[in-house]
Specification:
three-stranded antiparallel beta sheet, single chain
């Protein structure tokens, strides 16, 4: 018995959930930074963290984690490592170019091309190249969705456990 055919609408819905979950994860990370570094002072914090990338916020959390006593520090360290592992995927999902159509789905995959543009020199001529193309099955997309959701759940737990507990809702 063959697997049921995946429709573009199912893929789009999954990608939407992944994007929304990444956005919520990044917001939770900002809440954790505000709680740890700024003691809940949003006005001060917003001037310093508002436009920071996920990579920079994770680096800040790692540095802040070094100042904590266990158990918060070990939980924070694990969270940063786990989230950093999916960070590159986030950039691919946000900045990549997707190919989602019936022909590609019949192959059982979707294609995503990195948005990075590179320049290579070949015999005194510049050669422009767009990013690499990756193929993902629908199952792999669902696995990525589960990973991002797991990181978001960890972020919410971490946020609740960190002192002081009453600064941010």
């Amino acid at each position: 018995m063959s697997a049921p055919e995946i429709t573009p609408a199912q893929v789009h819905a999954t990608l939407g959930r992944i994007a929304i979950t990444f956005a919520a994860l990044e917001h939770e990370i900002q809440l954790i930074i505000v709680k740890l570094a700024f003691r809940g002072e949003w006005l001060t914090a917003s001037a310093l963290i508002e436009d920071r990338t996920l990579a920079r916020n994770l680096a800040a959390l790692k540095r802040l984690g070094a100042t904590l006593e266990p158990p918060g520090s070990s939980l924070l360290d694990r969270f940063v490592k786990k989230t950093d592992a999916i960070r590159e995927r986030r950039n691919l999902f946000v900045h990549g170019t997707w190919t989602i159509n019936a022909a590609v789905l019949k192959e059982g995959v979707v294609r995503i091309r990195s948005g990075r543009v590179t320049v290579a020199m070949e015999k005194n001529d510049k050669v422009w190249s767009r990013g690499t193309t990756e193929e993902l099955t629908f199952g792999e997309l669902r696995d990525i969705e589960a990973e991002v959701l797991s990181c978001l759940q960890d972020a919410k737990i971490l946020h609740e456990r960190l002192e002081p507990p009453d600064l941010i809702d």
